[in-house]
Amino acid sequence: MLTESEILRYSPHLLLDDVGEAGQEKLKNGKVLIIGMGGLGSPAALYLAAAGVGSLVIADFDTLEKSNLQRQIGYQTADIGASKVELMKNRIAQINPEIRVRTINVEMEASQLQMELMMVNLVLDCTDNMASRQMINAACVQARVPLIVGAAIRFEGQLMFFEHGHPDAACYHCLFPDQKEQTLNCSNSGVIGPVVGTIGTLQALEAIKYIVGLPSGIKNRLKLFDGKSLDWQTFKITKDPQCSVCG
User: Fold this and answer.
1) Alpha helix (H) residue ranges in 61-192
2) DSSP state of 76
3) 186 annotated active-site
4) Are 182 and 229 in contact (CB under 8 A)?
């Protein structure tokens, strides 16, 4: 049941046939884990909080650096040196104090991640390295928790949604079986800030759609975004029956 304050706050959602009061109550009961509070995770967290997703778990063990501010617009210059998850928790409270936020300010091991997955409905992978993505994917496959993955570098973005639990669902390892550490990231190869924000925002949009029960056009799909031309390419991700993670 929505309170009068919530009805006022979320009135634009309540006007939508695809959301309405029933959908907003689903958002209120939603529990999402966001791993990575950088250029992807920070806009995703802010949009999910603003939308009324009732419980957010935000994980990151980094502190804010000056070079982060070029793309991580949820933070301010005065925040340099502080914990990203604590900064984001405070920022969320300023936007929507009705949201429950729990922070994880350590680099999670697989065992801790498995425990965290028992308490959420959905995971957003907003990390920037292959090792983390492979670990998160494997844990979500085992726990049968849906996973939305975003990535961005230079002028290019990637977006994927894996609804683990369906027998025909592919996983991140099916697409990228090579688990070697990627050498390219924002720190050493550069990135245009709005590209990161675009992908992070779309991760939030897909999360909202999933929670309220709307269909997604990117399940088992790899969406590639070209920030120079604003073109999108779509590729089907086929489940690998020999995949060591989900096969």
Assistant:
1) 84-95, 110-117, 130-143, 172-175, 186-189
2) -
3) yes
4) no
Helix (H) / strand (E) element for 160: namely strand 156-162
Token code pair at residue 85: 């998850």
Query: Minimal CA–CA distance to 55: which of 121, 6, 130, 148?
Result: 121
User: What CATH superfamily classification does 4-236 receive?
Assistant: NAD(P)-binding Rossmann-like Domain (3.40.50.720)
Instruction: Give the pLDDT band of residue 157 (cuts 50, 70, 90).
Output: very high
Residue with tokens 């073109």: 231
> Could you identify the residue written with the tokens 């409270």?
93
- What contacts 65, CB < 8 A, 6 or more positions away? 80
Nearest to 148 by CA among 205, 193, 110: 205
CA dist 38 and 127 (Å) reads 8
Mean pLDDT of 180-198: 75
Single out the catalytic residue among 126, 140, 174, 186: 186
How many CA atoms lie within 13 Å of 152's alpha carbon, on the beta-carbon side?
27
Query: Is 206 within 8 Å of 218 (Cβ atoms)?
Result: yes
pLDDT mean over 185-196: 78
Q: What single letter denotes the amino acid at residue 114?
A: Q
Q: How many CA atoms lie within 13 A of 5 on its CB side?
A: 6
Pull the structure tokens for residue 40. 């992807």
